[in-house]
Amino acid sequence: MRQRYIGYQLVAGVFVAIACALLAGSVSYYLLPGKTTLAAILVFFTVLTVVTFIHRPWKTSLEIICSYLNLYFPQLEESSQLIIKPADKLNLLEQLQVIKLESAIVKLPGEPAIFTQQLKKAAWLFAAALIISIAILKLGQFSKIMPGTEGVNTNQSAQDLPPEKILPQIDGVLLKIAPPAYTGKPARTQDKFTINAEEGALVSWNISTNIEVKNVFLLFNEREKIALNSANKTDWQARRIISKPGFYQVSIDGKLSDLYQIQVIKDAIPVIHIKSPKQYTHIDAGEAQRVAINTTVTDDYGINNVQIFATIAKGSGESVKFKDTIFSFSTPFSAHRRRYDLQRTIDLPKLNMEPGDELYFYIQAVDTHQQKSRTDVLIVSIQDTAQLLSMDGIVAAANIKPEYFRSQRQIILDTEKLLKEKDSISTAAFKNRCNELGTDQKLLRLRYGKFLGEEDESGTEGEDNEEIGKAENFGNAKMVMDAFTDKHDNAEDATFLEPAAKSQLKATLNEMWKAELRLRLYKPQDALPFEYKALRLLKDLQQKSRSYVAKTNYNPPPIKTEKRLSGDLSKIAEPVNQQIVKPATDRFEMLKIAARILEQSKHKALSVADKRILELAAQQLAQQASTQPGVYLKAVGAVRRILANNKQISVSDRSLVEMAIQRSLPESKIKPSATGTTADMGLGQRYFNNLNR
Amino acid sequence: MSWTLTVIIICLLLLLLFTWQEFSRADKRRLIWRIIALWLAVGALACIILPLSYTTQTNISDGTKAVLLTKGFDINSIPAKVAVFTIDKAIQQKYPKAKLIGSTEELTYSKPLITHLQILGHGLNKYELEPLSKLHVSFNAPEPATGYTSVNWPAKIKAGNIFPLQGSYLNKSKKPVKLLLKGLNTSLDSTSIAPGTSSFQLNTTPKLKGPVVYHLLALSGYDTLSNDAVPIQILPTQPVKVLLLNAAPNFENRFLKNWLGENGYAVASRATISKDKSSTEFVNMDKLNLQRIDAGILNRFDLVVGDLSTLKTLSPAESSALRNEVTQKGLGVIVKADSSDNVPTWLQHDFPVNTLGLKEQPSVALTLQGKATKTAKLNIEASYVSYRNNTQTLVADAQNHGLAATNIAGSGNIIFTTLNHTYAWLLTGNKNDYAALWSLLISKAAKQSSPAYSWKVITPVPNIEQPVNFICSGATSEAAVSVNSEKLSPFQSSILPYQWKIHYNTLTKGWQQTNFGSKGEDWMYIYDAKHWNGIKNLIKINETKEYATKSIQKLSVTKQIQQKTQSEVPKVWFYIILLLACTFLWIERKFSIQL
Predict the structure, then answer these.
(1) pTM score of the predicted model
(2) Mind telling me which residue stretches traverse the membrane in this protein (chain B) (predicted)?
(3) Whole-complex ipTM
């Protein structure tokens, strides 16, 4: 029984140790990758030793066991120790008790719970540790997958490629990829043949062979050869600048290797994002004549320079003059950062720009690879106040409410005059004149408001009340109603103007209201833009209300029909034109036939002629692969395997090639063609003829 | 035969040897008896080796019932105490009680004679049923399983056309089944079949040419329920010869001529430029004098495209030549409507034009016959071809106003269209819609070509295990048919002299090259035995069902009472005789020694 107890204790110790080892192992999986097993075993033995030394199961004496037994089994009558006493030391009473116990001990129902208690605890600990460590590992795998799916790291995806097949002579390969200077990246090395390099990168191969070989060369896109140099026949070197995607093979003593893919990371052109100004900016009279340019320029490697190319157009019509200028940003570009946030304010008067002039400009960015990109042309124009204030259009037009427009024009002129005289008059006078202008603006606004059926605020109510007050008007319901109701929806008002004109008039009133507000606040400078805007809108309105009458056509004299087509044309030759257009040959003919051969190859072996066609198809696929190696390279390898292998074609090879063919073929065009009848020796035609008879 | 002879000779030699030994024996008391016993023993031995049979008349009513198991049978449905046969080795292994026979023919002379044959499972093919004509056949069709109930696709299509695959699918599961059309290992089209029966259509425009095999997959989740081959032949388009006749040079014809020319079509164009003066152009063909249109000129073309005013102002001789060519020889005409005076002609007769008084040209997307997608928008005249009972609308706008319609005129076709500005598509770079529209119009109108031969495979899903029947029609009365350069002997139809029936047994799967004389090749696809199992079973069920119904009718009319059969004498008798004779010889010797 003691042995069993010790056994239980030991097993419990082992469990605890394994649990600890598992936890330690899963943690060390991250901290010390590669040494997981070692760490786990180490922890296992340490914990086992510690646990065993704490419990010291071998020291468990028989007395302790007996006391446990006594505790759990009442039938032992607290005297199980007597059994382990030597028989000759027992007294009579004890001997009697022993005889009694011996029968009882046989009937004991197993072992006391305390024996297995520790074992159970240890088992639970073990189970918990197992679950935790599995969870940790799963979590770890999940977090490892995450960056891969985002595809941020291109090197990561290259490492995920299936292992390359290399020639048996090759002991090792070291590829050094030196990205071009514009990328600002350091050189890197890899031990794989598949190249994923920046455009213009210098790749140097260092291939070591396990035996001495005579010659080694690299075959690019099945055409270009580059021989490798060696000093001792086992270490071979070559270098080449990679500028195009494609594939290559390594040839050692005439034996060609698998196809390795070359992918080129092209340098993207810089991207310019203009936040302000807008494509077309119109600076109204009175507004500050300056343009704030706010832009962000980004590039994948670095930006060399960003400039603004501007053209100023002065004058109009035939006397327009252009002047080119270049502005640069204040930010220095010597850091060649990937992203720049740039601001620049162009003061238009400094460029000698006057009202009516226009500024065209675009932003050009140059990256470290000297690639340029430019934005669309943006236009900034300053409003020509001279034209706006001229009376030309108004004089020419028939009397279309000129008084109203003149008023708005007058307000502008008065405002400008007031601003000029601001310094020479007293504040009170200035304020007074400002307020008067505001009142004028209000009156004008109300006048136009009438057209829209707005409320009359002219304050003539008093007079009306007097009228009502008269005795003869007592009980005149119409007059009372007229005086005390708001006449918003007057039918005449509603139809006075067209809806489009009405909405524009509303906008004009809005501007007038804003101008009035500024004038009343004694800020004539601020009011000016709104006054101009209101005038412009009013002028537009005026132009719209004009009607256009087209010029009348030329009326030819009537034709004499008897003379028509009666000229002598006998000496005029008729044009006859003949041409032969050769339809373009189908470039993909071979691929189409190859697809059929592959289909037939499921049922019978390839013949020599079939193989020749497959070879031609392979060449065509190789051509495609030199531009898109990622898509077609596998298929080229598969065709090669099919051609090399005389026996059964593997299903995966066939499907790879078939997919590549389907992908490379263009959509077939629809062409007209006659439908066919059945071959019937003309029986149908004879039947038809006889029916027709 | 030699075996029988050898046995008889050996037995005779044995007989002579034993008889001579008997005579040379000292004890001659029961010599006669011994010799008789000896002869009997040798005779019995010979009979054991060579079976002895005799011919008898047996009553039909004496015959018994038997069961023939075919694929898809239910074990529980096999009746007890009945002889069970099968012609399928796999079934015999699954149900060892069934007796494996080589062909159904064996059932007719089996012993005991079978009169009633019950077929269980999916039934038999027609050629397997034919030998059973003397039997009373009954058949219980099983419930159809999940799978295709019908499927159809054109065996041949012209390059550039849409390939439609239609059919219906019975989905007995609770999950939807996905049907996937694959070509060159690339998914081309797919559809989902909800539980229950539903029809489907899958479309694709093949990129390949010649014989092609697509695959139709039925998928339930990640499980592939079936993967069947869909063989089609993509034929190259045959160029059409077109004659363009115009009242004046215009862009529409110029673009049409250039487009046809680019594609290698022969085009001749005549446009009137002044009184009695016309400009003529020829693309991909020799120069002709197009001043007078006669039968000789029209004969060189498959199609005439002209505006209505030109066709109306043809001289009576020209007009009658054109009419004759169209109605008798099958020349096609595309008439382009214009605002010519309303003199009714035979070309215009069936196509009343309805013009809406719209100020602006409406811009509409057109619907082409046989195309699901609409074209890009096109400015058209608001003149529409009204529908008549005998016309077919080819092009219509969204309101179903006809813009081009066709009608048969004798053996030719007339197309009448109000579309006059289709070149606007080419100007905007929309080549596809232009090609689709004119391909439709020209293909519908052009003179039908008569091929030198045509093939038709009659066996629904031919595979290696079956004989293939096909019909070959040739324009000549001689037929030299070969498959994979193996000459076959066709059987000429007694009614149609140009039709030849061929019965062929294949040894290879996949496309088989067939030749009709030296004229040209065609392809025939031999399926894998696994393909289209559901369809094959349905065909078998239907054929067997039909055969069973006929068999009941036939046998009830002519009931044969007696039948001659060959019966074999049971061999056990000869064993007994041999044993008795040998026992006598042995006992006789024992006793004689004792005495």
Answers:
(1) 0.59
(2) 6-23, 35-54
(3) 0.70
